[in-house]
Every structure is written in structure tokens, then in C-alpha cells.
Amino acid sequence: MTRNFLSVADLSPHEIGLSIDSAIRMKGGESTKPLDGMTVATLFEKPSLRTRVSFEIGIRQLGGDCVNLGASEVGLGVREPVADVARVLDRWVDIIVVRVNSHDSLLEFAEYANAPIVNALSDLEHPCQAMADIMTIQEHRGELRGQRVAYIGDGNNTAASLAIACASVGADFVIAAPPDYQIPTPAWEEANRRASESQSKVGWVELPQQAARGADVVYTDTWVSMGQDDETEVRLEAFKEYQVNEELMSYAKPDALFMHDLPAYEGKEIAPGMIDHPRSVVFDQAENRLHAQKAILAGVVT
Ligand code: CP
Ligand code: NVA
């Protein structure tokens, strides 16, 4: 059966643990070439720095070759239906890594291509980010089980994947978000299911201070995701009490990490200077995208 990675939920909790262990070994210098002789297509419908570059480097380090395609060249669903793009690429390449406007496009890729499909971000999930994030928490805190991860802000793609990942590995996840911006029900239900299996907790609170209290990790992401520009004004108003700043960090444990998937917007979801906060690990998260994704790629072909 083809192994796709469209959601963190495509990996069992055990597989998530194995993948993180593998990523940590690769970061430590383990060299492995599971993509030897293979070609990977990456296709980005939205802008990207971290995902795009770290996939290309990772594919090469795993012995593979890659072809990178931008939105305007392919015209996914505009110049050509997604199903045809999927079937054409499938004739040439061994893995398709794709960043899409709509998660439905990913499902269509998965339906029409035999090659494994890897989600490089959709409107619903950002699973590669979540894998790098829990790897980063593991590195800095020494363990995942029992860690309290406070996510402050929009219940978006990043939040959904992080909630499922935390619940899978036994970390507690609490989101502080306005009532209208919670994690969508399917991902939230999955996180709850996994939390009851791992005996961890997931929860929603309205006040950021309530989420941050006693946290091991304070995490935030942009209030306006790619493709939501029309909603900017409404969102800035809805989230104005949700900024991560020194005052909010003071509710967390004294050694709590500050995390952000980047790009970050100072003066909006973070106060100026948070990126360089002594407990900020944002560049470790970015670095770990490479290693976490190498483990994911190795996993979908083996
Ligand atoms: N965090 C993240 O996915 O960054 P890019 O959008 O630059 O890939
Ligand atoms: N939630 C953000 C993540 C960017 C990496 C977005 O979708 O734009």
C-alpha cells in the first residue's frame, strides 16, 4: 500500500516515535541513501522558504534527485486538473511533495498517483512542521511525555498538526484561541482520541494567560495564514489580545521554550524581540525541518 503523509494521523504514535528517533540519528550524522536512484517532484502552490529549501537539500542528502515546480508553471486545477497533474507526474517520479491551497487537492493527488504524496502544507495541516517541532521539544526538554505545550492564537493548519503530534507522544496540548478560531473538528477529534490513548490532555481555553500558565512550551503562528489576506482586518482585531510577549512568557515555567514555525510578524502575534528571546528555539525548529523531513521521506519509501 502506498504510504502517504497527508496528516500527522497517517503515522501511528509508535511510528511517530520511530520517525523522530530516525531524524535525531540523521542529524547526528547517520548517512543513509533510501532515495538512491529516485526522483522527487516538489510542487508549491504557495510561497515557501523553509519547506522548499529543506526538502530539496534533504532529498539530495538521501541520494535522490528533485524537480521543483512553482504554482504559476503548473497551474494546478487551472491550466490542468489536479487528477491529470498527479497522473502525469506519477509516470516519472517516485515521491510527490506538494503544498496546496486546498487539502482536497492533496486527497486528489493521493487518489490519482501511485507515488507517495507528502503534505508540504495545506489549509488543514502542516504535518512536516509538527514533526520538526516535536523533535525540537524532545531535544531541548529531553522528553515529550508530560510536557505542557501552550499554543496561543489561530487554530490553523500548524495548530492542528501540532495538537495531533503532541497527543500522539503523550505531551499535553492546550490552545488559547477566540471561540471562532478553534482547531477544526476532525483534527481536534483525532487529537482527543490520541490523547486518551497516550493518557495526555488536550484542551481549549479562551485566555492566553490560562494556557501559558505552567507551560513548558509557548508556541504561536501567524494570525493571517497564506490565502487569508481578505480577512486581515477582522483577524487582527480578533487576535489582538493573543500576542506572545515577555509578559505572557512570565506565566510559563521559567525555562519554557518559545516556539514559532516562521515566518513571524513582529507587533502582531509576537512582540518585537521574541525571535531573539533567550528561550527562543525558532531557528532550531527551522533547522530540524531538514532532519524530520528526511525521516519522513525515508519512511514513505521503505
Ligand atoms: N514554516 C514554514 O513552513 O515555512 P515556509 O512557509 O517558508 O516553508
Ligand atoms: N499557518 C501558516 C503557516 C506558514 C508556514 C500559513 O498557512 O500561512
Question: Summary?
Answer:
By secondary structure, this protein is of the alpha/beta class. The protein has helices at residues 13-27, 50-61, 71-74, 82-90, 103-112, 127-141, 157-169, 185-198, 208-212, 232-238, 246-249, 282-301; strands at residues 39-44, 65-70, 95-99, 117-119, 148-152, 172-176, 202-205, 217-220, 257-260.
Rg (CA only)? 18 Å
Beta-strand portion reads 5-15%
> Total number of helical segments?
12
Poorly predicted residue ranges: none
Shape by Cα distribution = globular
Total of domains: 2
Largest sheet: 5 strands, parallel
Say what the CATH topology of the largest domain is: Rossmann fold
Q: How many strands in all?
A: 9
Cα(first) to Cα(last) distance is: 11 Å
- Level-2 CATH architecture of the largest domain: 3-Layer(aba) Sandwich
**Helix and strand element order:** HEHEHHEHEHEHEHEHEHHEH
CATH superfamily of the largest domain: Aspartate/ornithine carbamoyltransferase
Helix content: 40-55%
CATH class of the largest domain: Alpha Beta
Class from secondary-structure proportions: alpha/beta
